[in-house]
Structure formats: C-alpha cells, structure tokens
Amino acid sequence: MADKIKVLLIDDDEDDFIITRDIMNDIPGRNYLLDWTSSFGEALRLIKQGIYDVYLVDYRLGAHNGLELIMTAVKERAIAPFILLTGQSDRETDEQAMHAGALDYLVKGTFNPFDLERSIRYSIEHAKSLAEIQKLNGELEQRVEERTQELAEAIKKLEHTNRSLYKAQQEIHKALQKEKELHELKSRFVTIASHEFRTPLSTVLSSASLISKYKGLEDDDKRQKHVDRIKSAVSNLTTILNDFLSISRIEEGKIYNLPTTFNLKAFAQEVVEEMQGFLKEGQHIDYQHLSDVETISIDKQLLKNILFNLLTNGSKYSGEGKTIRMTTAITNNSVTITVQDYGIGIPKADQAHLFTPFFRAQNVTNIQGTGLGLNIVKRYVEIMDGTLEYESELNQGSTFTICLPNAAEA
C-alpha cells in the first residue's frame, strides 16, 4: 500500500479543520493524513521540519494572513506545495496567491472531495516539475564551477611558464568566452524553462479544475474541450523536455552517427503519418520521393528527429489549411531532403541568428517554442557529416534543404 500523503491545515478556526477533515475522509481511498495548527509561528516551525507533503493555508490567520505565511516559507526554501484557502473567488485573489508562491487555491465552502483531491494531486506534481527545473539549474551551476576551475588552472600554468605566451593568452581568452557563454546559456535556460513550463502547467491545472464543474451529459463538448487542452499542454511539455534533453546529450557528446540500411520512401511516409496528429486544422503534408532508388544507409533515428523538427516547424509557423511540402531524393552517394512551408517566413535581420540556441525571430514571439529546434537539426546534420541550407521570405514561407552522405553508395 502506498504511503499516506501528509497534509497540514493551517487555520485559526477549529470548525474549518473539522469541515476539511470530513471532506478529506470522503475522498475515495482515504490516502491522506491530516494534521492541524492554528498558530502562525507553529506553522512555520512545522514547515521547516519538512515532514508534510502539502500545506492547506487559510487566508485569514489572526493578526497575520496566509499570503504572509506562504511568502515567508518560500523565502526559507520550503519544498512542499502550498494551497491557499480563501473565502472569495476572483482574479485578484488568484494573482495574489500565485505571486506569494501558492500553486493553487480553493474557495472555502464550495469545494468537494474531488476538488480537494485534484488540487492536492496537481499541486504535488507541479512542485515536482519545478524541483526538476531547479535540479537542472544546479547541474548547470556545477558545470560553471568546473569551467571556472579549469580557467584557474590555466592561469596557474601561465604563471609558471613563459613559453608560448601568445598561445596561452589565446587559451585564456577562449576559456573566458566559454565561461561567459555558459553563464548566458544557464540564464536563458532558466528563463525559458520557467516560462515554457508555467504556461502548459497552468493550462492543465485550470482545465482539470473546470472539468469537475461540467457534470451533465449536455456538457460533454465542454469536457472534451478541456481534455483536448490538457492533452495539448502535456504534448507541449514533452516537446520542451525532449528539446532540453537533446541539447544536453549533444553537449555531453552522447549523440553518435550509427547508419543502418532501410527504405527511405517507406520511412518518410511513416513519419508523415505520425505527423498527422500534430497538424493544424486543414493542414496537409505533400510528400514525394523523386528517385527510382529507395534504399539508403544512414542513421535512422537522427533522420527521424530532423524530419519531425522541420515538419513541426512548418506546421507551427503556417496557418490553418496550408500545405507543407517534403521531397526526398537519392543521387550517387548522397541523400537530399527538402521541407518547404508557406508560412510567416523569417525576417532577413533574424536569419543570421537562426541556428543560435534559444533564439526566436521577432515575428514568432506569440507562438510557443524554446528556440532550440533548428539548432538541434543543425547539430544532428553536422554529426551525420551533412549540410543544411535554407531560403526564407517574410510572409512567403521557408525552405530547408538537407544533404547527407549515403553509406549504401560509398
């Protein structure tokens, strides 16, 4: 049997404790253990002990309020999530709760066992996601420290030798530049990860909360709309995580070019079929293979990741009803792949930075993304000893052409 989830209710009204306890006892499975304290100071002491999985905090706490308690606990690095209990439901209260550090809020007297169980479960999952981001941030900081140590060792060697002074100066300059880039990368990673995770997580929380309000058969369409929103948000989270993991593996040198022999035309058709669930309404991928020869020998997984990134971008930056064209061709000892869309295109001023990690063009700021997709494509193509070229016109679309060596013809 799973361990019980330990919940601490912080409320100066014992009647509210009894009501909350009764609601919690009605949750199916009763996998919760509820404790109660009415003291602001006692609550902070218990929070510091870290023995609870989640905290329910009343907005009113005598001379203090729940927002003060949450802000104080968060500053003292409390890990478990906070859920604010309030007597009113409005946007101002919602914003105050989130600003203080609460992951959700419930309106007293209106929530039922399902609402309470849902809020606790999603708050714990949200807290785990934020903890993972902090862990990744810590790992990046460790890498910065390692780079700094390397720089210190380089300087120490320089102090003990007069040989190759110019070369040593160049190495120091490179190390400093690398450290600067790493700092910038960490900063951009934290900013983008925090923003990109917050949006889909908020969508999941809000839709999950609203689903519970649609209970009749006549509300099926409304429920399905929020189910679809949750699925889309989870898909976005998966894409973001995959991008971050791909960049991490590339930086660590864990991506290798391992060619296998397969039918390119059949493989490309499978990729197009898998893409159907990601296209906007009315969009269509027009695929053609332009050679009689169909068998190639290249890294199948890297090619699949490249095609998914390019086709996803083609769909993302094109309107509904648009066509994305893809062609493949095998000539002599190479494979040529072209992906063309008729979307918003890339401004000329931004094209020089197109493959820079986390870079996003000026005309896509309202479209969700990490700015890593094309950088990942370029790095994969380089690992496969290929070339990548592109053409793009604003409001006309973009064309990406990839040429890869074909080991089958070598």
Automatic annotation (TrEMBL):
Which reactions does this protein catalyse?
A: ATP + protein L-histidine = ADP + protein N-phospho-L-histidine
* Coiled-coil blocks: 130-188
| Keyword Ligase (UniProt) | no
Which superkingdom heads the taxonomic lineage of this protein's source? Bacteria
Tell me which residues make up the Histidine kinase domain: 192-408
Q: Which residues cross the membrane?
A: none
Q: Residues in domain Response regulatory?
A: 6-123
Q: Which UniProt keywords apply?
A: Coiled coil, Kinase, Phosphoprotein, Transferase, Two-component regulatory system
- Identify the EC number(s): 2.7.13.3
Q: Fetch the PROSITE patterns from UniProt.
A: HIS_KIN, RESPONSE_REGULATORY
Do you know which InterPro entries this protein is assigned to?
Answer: CheY-like_superfamily, HATPase_C_sf, HATPase_dom, His_kinase_dom, HisK_dim/P_dom, HisK_dim/P_sf, Sensor_HK_Regulatory, Sig_transdc_His_kin-like_C
Is the keyword Transcription assigned to this protein? no
Q: Which Pfam families match?
A: HATPase_c, HisKA, Response_reg
| SUPFAM superfamilies reported in the protein's UniProt record | ATPase domain of HSP90 chaperone/DNA topoisomerase II/histidine kinase, CheY-like, Homodimeric domain of signal transducing histidine kinase
Name listed for the protein in its UniProt record: histidine kinase
Which residues, renumbered to this chain, carry the PTM 4-aspartylphosphate?
58
